[in-house]
Specification:
Helix content: 25-40%
Number of domains: 2
Radius of gyration: 21 Å
CATH topology of the largest domain: Nucleotidyltransferase, domain 5
CATH class of the largest domain: Alpha Beta
Strand order of the largest sheet: 1-12-4-3-2
Number of strands: 12
Largest sheet: 5 strands, antiparallel
Number of helices: 6
CATH superfamily of the largest domain: ATPase, nucleotide binding domain
Order of helices and strands: EHEEEHEEEEEHHEHEHE
């Protein structure tokens, strides 16, 4: 039975160093910003997701190689957090692990009876009614306001944007940014690998510190004696 261990960034580098010295074949997973270890039959033994502000690993890079590239001192950066759902968004700026500025954004984008965003509805059925046109106008304003927020001070100085949203909304945000001449690649975007109940300030506060943590999933508890001591976070 798998078990999740969660520990902070300042415990991660030393754990990775000790882990790299153990007799495991551990490879980096660039897509998931982490690492994994399988046995000879391909069965997963353990995996991890690195703190989000850690350096990007290279695909299938050996853990020892990645550890060598880590700086001796990991300086905690500032970052932006973006939570999006149809018609609702929360944007926050995190300084030294604390939310110091935030904005809730609400727009009329959802068809009341179906509970479906107008952008999704138009993928299959074109409508020219006033309600449809209004929702599309609100959708444009929704993405424009998010982008204006992310490009304003202090967000424009943030090296990272950690986000959670449906794939369709992220694609629409990218399209809106291209239309407005905004380069979203000016910051490093990484997805929050957490369950978000809604795009609200409470959820933004709850997940604003997720970038600080390493998540280590051990698939077989019998292996724990073969691993270096696994740190456990205590609030």
């Amino acid at each position: 039975m798998s078990r999740l261990y969660k520990f902070q960034y300042d415990q991660t580098a030393s754990f990775l160093q000790e882990l790299s010295e153990k007799p495991f074949q551990i490879y980096m997973d660039a897509e998931k910003h982490g690492a994994y270890c399988d046995d000879e039959l391909g069965k997963r033994l353990f995996s991890m997701r690195l703190p989000l502000f850690f350096e990007d690993p290279e695909e299938r890079e050996a853990l020892w190689s990645y550890v060598e590239r880590l700086p001796e001192y990991l300086e905690l950066p500032d970052w932006s957090v973006l939570l999006m759902e149809a018609g609702r968004a929360a944007v926050g700026f995190v300084e030294q692990g604390k939310v110091v500025k935030h904005k809730n954004i609400r727009k009329y984008m959802v068809r009341k009876k179906q509970g479906k965003a107008q952008l999704t509805h138009l993928k299959t059925k074109g409508k020219s009614r006033y309600g449809s046109r209004l929702r599309l106008k609100e959708a444009e304003a929704y993405f424009d306001e998010i982008l204006e927020r992310l490009t304003a001070d202090p967000h424009n100085k943030s090296p990272f944007v950690f986000y959670h949203c449906p794939v369709r909304l992220k694609a629409c945000l990218n399209e809106a940014a291209e239309h407005m001449g905004i380069d979203l690649a000016a910051s490093t975007w990484r997805r929050l690998a957490v369950n978000v109940r809604e795009a609200s300030f409470d959820e933004l506060k709850r997940h604003s510190r997720e970038a600080l943590f390493c998540r280590f999933v051990l698939e077989d508890e019998s292996l724990v004696e073969q691993l270096p001591p696994i740190p456990e976070y205590k609030a």
